[in-house]
Description:
Elements: E1 3-8, H1 14-28, E2 32-37, H2 43-51, E3 54-62, E4 65-66, H3 68-76, H4 78-82, E5 89-96, H5 111-114, H6 116-119, E6 120-122
Amino acid sequence: MSNIVIVYHSGYGHTKKVAKAVLAGATDAGANVRLIPVGEFDDAAWAELDAADAIVFGAPTYMGGPSADFKKFADASSKPWLAQKWKDKIAAGFTNSAHMNGMATSSWPSPISSRWPCSTAWSGSAPA
């Protein structure tokens, strides 16, 4: 059974709703899945990410980039990234925006997320 962790920030509840949908789909496919909001990170949560087979990242797009709370998590992830703790894991991400033209396509290709694909096998499509 695959072990998947979904780490996310949800400012108004929309991203949490998407995270729960990802959880439901992965659970239906037979995976062991855990949701961890970025505001609840402790040593045990970091250990869960290190032990996961796949990590799914979710954040709202605010003003063309991920939320500040998610960015704080992303900045803190530099330690496991430098230690290559997530090397060869499957990684995926999602975002949403309140506005049709909310610049969501610019959120994931930002410098914040550019390092994750370097040590993980990134899954998903690139923005057009």
